[in-house]
Specification:
By secondary structure, the chain is an alpha/beta fold. Helix content is 22%, strand content 24%. Bound molecules: S-adenosyl-L-homocysteine (SAH).
């Protein structure tokens, strides 16, 4: 059983309890009241396998575009916008974003725009994905340990995360999108990415503690379960409504001495909802 690597100097000397990894299939903790009890399914039941090393991902033939060149242009644009973390840029250069959007939107896949992914949800802009990933990877040169993502959506950010982390658990509450994400990552051989169907507001206690937690949907507050499931030395990045009633990007650092909250720029993410549908 592998101990998750706890990144960052603040993790040193911290006493982090490492729980056994979940057996598969697993079920999320108690479902939200009123919500139908559903099993959590894991798309890639291979938690025992080692994290993938950086290597080229299988590409999609016949999409009618030289996606490598377009992706390189996207990376240059991200750099011009201030994104500089080498691992984040490399991961975004590797994952084919057009694989995750509907055929009709393929030509817009590398533009700096959010795009509809069905069921009223959207895939975040590349620079928002990069910004959040940079916040998670800030000051670290090694891969993140175990990471929890709330809001799998089409699976794009989860795939990018899988390139900079040893292990990723990503939860989606809409079954249609969970299935779509499974189909999107199928064939990419991301053995360290586990897609879960369930209510991410509860986190995923079986995989805790997490070196990093990232949410792609924003609520009134950061659920306490996420903070509880964050490792000492870990970082959480999520949109949340703050004092002035506006959604902001919030960073929570958990240290041996407590929790430090930093409110960053205003953002516009889809709402965090409880229960599954
Ligand atoms: N990172 C995603 C973005 C998806 S949009 C991507 O790359 O495509 C945010 C997603 O969060 C939506 O799919 C929405 O259904 C999901 N979501 C909202 N509340 C949730 C919750 N409580 N648990 C899990 N997913 C949730």
């Amino acid at each position: 059983m592998k101990k998750p690597s706890m990144p960052g100097p603040s993790a040193q000397g911290a006493t982090t309890q490492v729980r056994p990894r979940p057996g598969f299939p697993v079920q999320l903790a108690a479902p939200v009241q009123g919500a139908p009890a559903r099993k959590t399914t894991i798309a890639t039941p291979s938690a025992a396998k080692p994290a993938v090393a950086a290597r080229p991902l299988p590409t999609t033939p016949g999409v009618g575009m030289d996606s490598r060149a377009v992706r390189a242009a996207m990376i240059r644009k991200l750099q011009a916008q201030g994104v500089s973390h080498p691992a984040v840029l490399a991961a975004m250069g590797l994952v084919e974003r057009h694989r995750f959007v509907d055929t009709a939107l393929v030509n817009q896949a590398y533009e700096d725009t959010s795009l509809p992914i069905g069921l009223g949800q959207t895939i975040s802009k590349p620079n928002v994905v990069a910004r959040m990933m940079e916040l998670l990877c800030e000051g670290r040169t090694e891969k993140l340990g175990r990471v929890l993502e709330i809001g799998t959506g089409c699976g794009y950010q989860a795939a990018v995360l899988s390139q900079v982390s040893r292990e990723v658990y990503s939860i989606e509450r809409l079954r249609g999108l969970h299935e779509k994400a499974r189909a999107n990552v199928r064939g990419l051989r991301l053995t360290n990415l586990h897609l879960l169907f369930g209510d991410g507001m509860l986190g995923f206690a079986q995989g805790a503690p997490y070196a990093a937690i990232i949410a792609a949907a924003g609520g009134e507050a950061i659920p306490q379960a996420w903070i509880d499931q964050l490792a000492v030395g870990g970082r959480l990045v999520a949109p949340a409504v703050t004092g002035a009633g506006q959604q902001h990007l919030v960073v929570i650092d958990k240290t041996a001495h407590g929790v430090k909250k930093t409110v960053l720029e205003p953002v516009l993410f889809v709402p965090l909802k409880s229960g599954v549908a």
